[in-house]
Amino acid sequence: MLRDIALISLVLRVLVFTYFVAISMGKPANDKALIIIPSVIYLLFGMYNFLYPGRLKIFKNYGDLLFVPILAFLSGQKESFLVFLPFISLNTSRKVLQGMLFLWLSVAFAFYHYGKFGFVLLPILMSMYIASLHPDLVEVLRKERFYIKNLRRSYSKMASDYGRLEKELSNLKVSASLLDKLQNSPTLKDYLQAIKEEFNVRSISIAPLHENFSKEIDPSTCSFHVSVKLEKGEAKVSFYLNNPLELCDKELLKNLEKASKLINLYIEGFEEKSKAKVIAV
Q1: How many CB atoms lie within 10 A of CB 228?
Q2: Does residue 211 sit in helix, strand or coil?
């Protein structure tokens, strides 16, 4: 259906182009150029819009409203107001506002060229607009647009839900992977080595923490530091990454933080500050 309407619009534009070229014949060269050049541009835009429907949406919606009044005015012919009538017929049921605009353009040109005689033409022009209204078609188009609008809204919601579920699935996979590493790592160093390989970090170290601290990013050493609460005290887990850009990866940092919280399953705490050792892999 949309292709049929596009073809009808193209044929209509070709006929309008032919009309303006025909009336330009016999005029002086300057007047002829003023009519033919915009007419050619109008036709080229129309053909391009037909061949590539999604690229010139502005012309598709407003091109006729822009070019046809200009061409009708430049032609200087009294009869040129009639060129608006087929556009009234084409647009009234599909795009009521555009049909109305073409109606008032035809009325304005009729008054401009015929003066008071425009009052005589007004009922005919109004009847052309009313006759072009098809209530059944308007209702069908209204329902179709309402359906498409709801379809787009539903698709947007479904895409959002899918993205959320995909993110949750990714988090579950990471959690499952961490649990597997816990089961397969008898010692803390084995666990840290598994985390190091999983997330491709340069090194990991664990040190006792004796000050208030939560987490921080250190671009100078390309490292990410997380505090972990143990049964006895706190520990500072440091991840040294390979690339500074990885510090901007929120998902990676979130997973590293999640992995660091599990070290309290291996150690209860550190010895006294003087005897405490840094664990590193």
Answers
A1: 19
A2: coil
